[in-house]
């Protein structure tokens, strides 16, 4: 068929056009080959860029969070300091209770046994070594009865207190039969007698104070009855008694009834006891008994076993006259009446008093009442010979300060301090939200470290406890938490005790009142943000290292910039660290830094559990 535009219908292409197409193809082929050879101008630019770019393939990708985790090297500042081990003579170093410094202070009112911290120029800037042969403590409940000799190599109490069954040395371990000066046959029978008067079994009694605790066998056996005892004793000639207590997994601190207030809030404890603690209760017009009254909750119990109780039987053993002991007991009972206590029981070696629930039926001398100063402003405050007033009540049956639920309901019930609006900025709603938040946080911690919540971490410390949410979320018979409320922060320690938890006031610019290697897990929430303008991060971290056991763990929660400073210092402390994102994702500036202290002991090189030395 013939096309309209091509009448011939089959016109042939000219040879010239075919040669032109072939020529163009050959030209572009040669041009491409020339440029691939690297001699083309455009390709030389591309080649130079390729040379400058690092296109290596990385085989060791690190998926750890790196949010703002880049170290800024400043020419004027040295690299992170590597801290050396202290001399082995500092193995049991307690900075604020050292014997040499203590002997420079007066002995009156036990002042020399109180806290006396070193000045800045005398602080140690090295790592406290563990003793040779140190071993991970036995897990609870075995630790209640056995302690490795290598961890606390002090035998003097096994001789001095042998008859009283405090502690025995067998092979390479110490055994604790559960005895005490006033209960040489064991604490259980002694507690059974107390429980015939005091409602220990039903959760009414949850927090207790043991003054002059020895090796804390009373506290250890009270733990088995779900009662948390805060035990204290001085660092004195009864060598390492508080260290033994903590090694057993029992709450204890170095402390003494002396010239300053105890570091606990008013109305903290459901009961207190003195088992031959040898505290002169009638001295200074009853000042020490008034201090126990301050920290004893309305309706709480005080137990006195030992002198002068049962003086008719023991006056010759105690090498005192009948008249002297009789007068002392009479004076104690008169003081108890002034404090609004009733004697509920006296049999054999034990007397039990109960503090009334309010002052409606008390006969008190108003001239002897303490002046208002903020009842819980007690850090380094001079103890006074005065009676702490009861909180006001509207009826004779009302419990002063607020009635508490029985434990464990008490743990998450709204504490009276909060329901009465006594904690600034904290409402019932915000308290309940805080509890939810800490349950979430603790669940995240357990995902990071599966040992949290197990008996491996028995002794736990929260350095900035807030409302006690961390400890409440962690509550278990497998562990206990020392809730520390910094003296420069909001005072919430009263709330913590009302929840059935224990704790203490402390300033982290100073050493804590404990021996080295006494905590398995330390939680530091916002501690370094709180103290960043107050004292050196280095000092706080070295103190944390002192009280942390080898292969113990630390959880820091803070702003990422603060944690990077912490991590840099920790890098020179034989700690292994890892930064983790906040539970809500990498965009949250608050991060979680987890650290594990390496195992190493004094006097031996290259014995660390990590290659970092």
TrEMBL record:
Membrane protein topology class: Single-pass type II membrane protein; Single-pass membrane protein
EC number: 2.1.1.-
Alphabetized Pfam families for the sequence: Methyltransf_29 (PF03141)
Main location: membrane
Coiled coil, from the record: 315-342
One term of GO molecular function: methyltransferase activity
Localization of this protein: Endomembrane system; Golgi apparatus membrane; Membrane
A single GO BP: methylation
First-tier enzyme category under EC: transferase
This protein's GO CC annotations: endosome; Golgi membrane; trans-Golgi network
Family, per entry: Belongs to the methyltransferase superfamily.
Name of the featured protein: Methyltransferase
């Amino acid at each position: 068929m013939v096309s309209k535009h091509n009448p011939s219908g089959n016109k042939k292409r000219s040879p010239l056009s075919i040669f032109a197409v072939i020529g163009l193809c050959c030209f572009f082929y040669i041009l491409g080959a020339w440029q691939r050879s690297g001699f083309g101008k455009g390709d030389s630019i591309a080649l130079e860029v390729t040379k400058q770019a690092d296109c290596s393939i990385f085989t060791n990708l690190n998926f750890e969070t790196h949010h703002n985790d880049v170290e800024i090297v400043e020419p004027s500042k040295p690299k992170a300091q590597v801290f050396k081990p202290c001399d082995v003579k500092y193995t049991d170093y307690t900075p604020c209770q050292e014997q040499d410094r203590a002997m420079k202070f007066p002995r009156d009112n036990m002042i020399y046994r109180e806290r006396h911290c070193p000045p800045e120029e005398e602080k140690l800037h090295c790592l406290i070594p563990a003793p040779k042969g140190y071993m991970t403590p036995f897990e609870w409940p075995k630790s209640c009865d056995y302690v490795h000799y290598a961890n606390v190599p002090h035998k003097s109490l096994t001789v001095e207190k042998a008859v009283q069954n405090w502690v025995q040395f067998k092979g390479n371990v110490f055994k604790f039969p559960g005895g005490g000066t006033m209960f040489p046959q064991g604490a259980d029978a002694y507690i059974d007698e107390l429980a015939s008067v005091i409602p220990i079994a039903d959760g009414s009694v949850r927090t207790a104070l043991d003054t002059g605790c020895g090796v804390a066998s009373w506290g250890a056996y009270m733990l088995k009855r779900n009662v948390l005892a805060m035990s204290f004793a001085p660092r004195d000639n009864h060598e390492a008694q508080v260290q033994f207590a903590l090694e057993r997994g029992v709450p204890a601190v170095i402390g003494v009834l002396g010239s300053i207030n105890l570091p606990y809030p008013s109305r903290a404890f459901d009961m207190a006891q003195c088992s031959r603690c040898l505290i002169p209760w009638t001295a200074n017009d009853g000042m020490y008994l008034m201090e126990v009254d301050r920290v004893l909750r309305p309706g709480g119990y005080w137990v006195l076993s030992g002198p002068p109780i049962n003086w008719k039987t023991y006056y010759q053993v105690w090498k005192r006259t009948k008249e002297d002991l009789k007068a002392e007991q009479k004076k104690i009972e008169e003081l108890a009446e002034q404090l609004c206590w009733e004697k509920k029981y006296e049999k054999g070696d034990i007397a039990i008093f109960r503090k009334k629930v309010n002052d409606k039926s008390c006969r008190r001398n108003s001239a002897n009442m303490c002046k208002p100063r903020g009842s819980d402003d007690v850090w380094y405050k001079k103890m006074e010979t005065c009676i702490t007033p009861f909180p006001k009540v509207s009826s004779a049956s009302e419990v002063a300060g607020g009635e508490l639920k029985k434990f464990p309901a008490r743990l998450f019930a709204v504490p009276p301090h909060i329901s009465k609006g006594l904690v600034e900025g904290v409402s019932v709603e915000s308290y309940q939200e805080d509890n939810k938040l800490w349950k979430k946080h603790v669940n995240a911690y357990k995902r990071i470290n599966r040992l949290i919540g197990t008996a491996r971490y028995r002794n736990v410390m929260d350095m900035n406890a807030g409302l006690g949410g961390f400890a409440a979320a962690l509550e278990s018979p497998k562990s206990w938490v020392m809730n520390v409320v910094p003296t420069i922060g909001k005072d919430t320690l009263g709330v913590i005790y009302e929840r059935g938890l224990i704790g203490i006031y402390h300033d982290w610019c100073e050493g804590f009142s404990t021996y080295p290697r006494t905590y398995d897990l330390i939680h530091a929430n916002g501690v370094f943000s709180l103290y960043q303008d107050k004292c050196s991060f280095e000092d706080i971290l070295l103190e944390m290292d002192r009280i942390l056991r080898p292969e113990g763990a630390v959880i820091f929660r803070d702003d990422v910039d603060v944690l990077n400073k912490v991590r840099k210092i920790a890098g020179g402390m034989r700690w292994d660290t890892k930064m983790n994102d906040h539970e809500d994702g990498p965009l949250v500036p608050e991060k979680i830094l987890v650290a594990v202290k390496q195992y190493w002991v004094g006097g031996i090189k290259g014995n660390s559990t990590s290659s970092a030395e």
